[in-house]
Specification:
Number of domains: 1
Number of helices: 5
Distance between the termini: 10 Å
Largest sheet: none
Number of strands: 0
């Protein structure tokens, strides 16, 4: 469950980073160009993803722990995207493979 929450926050922050005027993402896919041109739609998706992540965190740990966890995850994903994204280290295949590996770990260990 936490892996999915972290993926939701990662996607929300990636969309937020996509709408920034300072990023220089030259080889954007079509979906990124579409969402960059429609900032209000992108903002709505960002808010929806963060609300779903917050609701799941509240369900798992309670309201105060949910808020704290969401703040920590947002800071971590923001740092990860700002640090690694300009170097193009993370592709869609990498993110999906990391997600699947951690889902398997989460299901086997917990």
């Amino acid at each position: 469950m936490y892996t999915t929450i972290i993926l939701l926050v990662f996607l929300a922050y990636l969309l937020f980073y996509n709408t920034s005027k300072k990023n220089n993402w030259s080889d954007k896919p079509a979906w990124a160009r579409y969402l960059e041109a429609r900032a209000s739609l992108s903002g709505s998706i960002i808010v929806l993803l963060l609300i779903v992540a917050y609701a799941l965190l509240v369900y798992l740990g309670g309201p105060v722990a949910g808020i704290f966890s969401l703040i920590v995850i947002i800071m971590a994903m923001g740092s990860l995207i700002v640090l690694l994204f300009p170097f193009r280290y993370l592709s869609t295949k990498h993110i999906l493979s990391i997600y699947l590996v951690f889902i398997v770990f989460e299901l086997l260990i917990f």
